[in-house]
Queue: 2 jobs
Job 1
Amino acid sequence: MKIITIVGARPQFIKAAAVSRAIQVFNQRHRSKKQIQELLVHTGQHYDYLMDKVFFEELELPNPDYHLGVGSGSHAKQTAMMLERIETVLQKEKPKVVIVYGDTNSTLAGALAAAKLNLPVAHVEAGLRSYNRTMPEEVNRILTDHLSTFLFCPTDQAVKNLSKEGIKDGKTILVKKVGDVMYDSVLYYSELAEKKSTILQDLKLVGPQSALRHAPRRVHGSPVPHMVQGAVRIPNYYLATLHRAENTDNPKPLKSILSALNEIAKDVPVILPLHPRTKKMIKAYRLFSEAQGIKLTDPVSYLDMLKLEKNAKAILTDSGGVQKEAYWFGVPCFTLRDETEWIETVRSGWNVLVGRGEKRIIEEVKRNERRKKPPKKKWIFGDGKASEKIVRTIMT
């Protein structure tokens, strides 16, 4: 069976790596039977080394069979170029299934091109909703779900969201809760990150004077360690990530968020790996003075990011993936948005929606200093075998 996987942005590289490993395992177990041939198509949506190639290297993903070289551009231009080039590949290769991930323009273009050619679309991370249609990602999610044949949901809530829109398991559509493939990746790469990443030393976030404590062995009953087993250093920094258009493409929210991070950094260091878009807009709006107290870095690799997340005092982010990773590591999270598609992390008490207002962000972070960590909740993102379930379901 020939499958085409379409990726374009760094979160998709992480998700695709998990499913590709599961495909390899499936092929090894069924050597005498029908094998899966996976072809990887990279749209080129992310093309900078620190956002692209380093992820392929760390995740041990094979080089793409097709690199479409689309690059940046307006939503219309970028999606249209992807659509045209993906269609050419699909017409040539004639796959049985096309797999798309998440909610980017690459996701929508892949789903639309496949659906127009009457090819089954498998959407990994189906059913997510923020119910904010001003977000390009929300539009991409909705359209992709309505084009898909296989809808692989990470949570029960995602299944319920699809049901509300009339997308239910039936004769021609399969809706299945499989768990979160990013959790698969965190389980697989977490220990490797602890062994290989030197990011804490590189950024001088640990030193001989740092206090030590004993880390808990489990978070929420999962096998992911909150920190290195045994004696570890007490977190002495906040980690921040900022990349969404609604936070960066308008000077008012960007200035407000940076000012809040700058104020927080007066007491505890704040590390902000700069997404290319964020760096560009800070420069365009001349907001470097608002960020003068923040430790700005280049984008970091996946292993470095896991190490930073796992050892942070708390995380401030507008990223969906980082919200979940904070939850899995048992690190308090403050989401720089008014809504989230990962509502489970909020209901559990580990994630707080703080919006973009400077005062609210600062108040919530200070309040966290006095808060007790929430009790452990039922594990809601699966058992770390989502990728295996996806591959087995498609083959069945």
Note: Residues 207-232 have pLDDT under 50 and may be disordered.
Job 2
Amino acid sequence: MMASRTTSQAIPKAPAFAAYVVVCLAVYWAPLWELLRLALSVNTCSHILLIPFITIALVLTSPQRPGPGARSSPGAAAAVFLTGIAVFGFSWRFGSWLSAGGALELIILSLVFLVWAGFLFLYGTQAFRSLLFPLLFLLFVVPLPQTLIDRCIYWLQAGSSEVTYLLFRMTGTPVFRRGFVFFVPQFTIEVAQECSGIRSSVALVITCLLAGYLFLRSTWARVALLLAAVPVLVIKNGVRIVTLTLLAIHVDPDFLSGNLHREGGFLFFVLGLLILWPVLWWLQKAEAKLMRPRTRTQGPVSGGSPAGPAAVLPQS
């Protein structure tokens, strides 16, 4: 037992895990190259490039990061490793039956399982639970299924159209609406799929998850922040559409095709963050109030009156 424990503690866990990850990346180099091309060419996948670096930063800066004496869990590691192999085998056997990109999604998912298996083998289940959020955050490297993206885009189109119509009415702009198409003076505006704001919406959801993990402590507060982001996704996009349209009507028609239209998504992403900042602040205050220990009311002092200290009577 003593020799086994000494050997376990002598293993340089961090370099061993880094070497294991490098081997996994080398084995998966072909699908990873395809994933890189996808992230550079498709807007809904551009966040994938940042996810590994954010995950590493979260692990290294976490106060719960495991030390060299962490106990391994080979049984759990074997189960997760075999799951990853099974997912890879499924993608290889039935990849041609899946929708476009479906095979790549499963292959990258299998790689994530293998990374988790290596972590479990070296650091154990207790360390895995303590770093559950950063390790699960790694799932964002898996491309989102196209069917899910299409549903989200349609929801964003519908929500943005409602907000756009409301803002047009509030600003006194003459407008006639037919579905996702708006007829305003001089222009016909369509809330197309490209105008749904899906890219900034994905970025906003990821940012809310990170903010909840870093600045909030309770599950209910983190869920509340994420739910608060849902209406903001359509509000910021509606503001963007109306702002560009009003600028085109009253200032310059080129606003509907200029740089602000093509590259201005970041500005309205910041607008979404500014809307959510008071929500985060309020949730922090609510957490502090709920977690504050209640002070017990002290009872009457022994020998004294319940109403207060005994009065001193003057001597005659």
Note: The radius of gyration is 28 Å.
